[in-house]
What we know:
The protein is 34% helix and 28% strand. By secondary structure, the chain is α/β, with parallel strands linked by helices.
Amino acid sequence: xxxxxxxxxxxxxxxxxxxxxxxxTEGIKWDFYEEVTxxxxxxxxxxxxxxxxxxxxxxxxxxLLFLVGIDFSxxxxxxxxxxxxxxxxxxxxxxxxxxxxxxxxTGFFDLISNCxxxxxxxxxxxxxxxxxxxxxxxxxxxxxxxxxxxxxxxRGQGFGEADGALKERYxxxxxxxxxxxxxxxxxxANEYYQRAEDLIFLLKHTPIIPDFGQGEKDLDILxxxxxxxxxxxxxxxxxxxxxxxxxx
Length: 248
């Protein structure tokens, strides 16, 4: 429930939309939703698992026939519905739903996307919601993401775990679930946050540093981190991601 409450809070505040942050990134090798649309056709139907506030789905809506976004967080879906009403998009729908219990017809989707959210490989295969020859694409955060921040706080998302373990686990699960031609890619980019408040916003709206701000020394640690990692380009950290593309 703690995790669900966290994502509900974030969903109501910003729907996972960090577009207003002043941050520059060097070394990104792909845009996830561009990778999705490059592999889709104008006649395809897409399911986005863990859609958050739906901003990305609304952005690519014109590239596909029909798009469905699901998220287990009520707060996220409320934000997605609000974003939908403010858009001029008509071929997108959002539903509150767990990826562990997909409620769609057999073979309904040509593509399934999943970005920075948990997913159940066996459920996607068991529920048979993806067509034969359909594609599943997921982008996830690597264990070594924001490594200097986690080292400063001596805690964090995936801290102390072997880098690459999550990627290998997902690849193994997808193959066991019957997906073939499983490919993986990764990048480790440099990120520069322009202001301290940008970094604070990130930490308060993501699980990178659990319970950030509640520890007595958190703000002191953050102050030292900013001082030690400030460069001409901004406050430096890293963004490490991996991409998996699997064919059913």
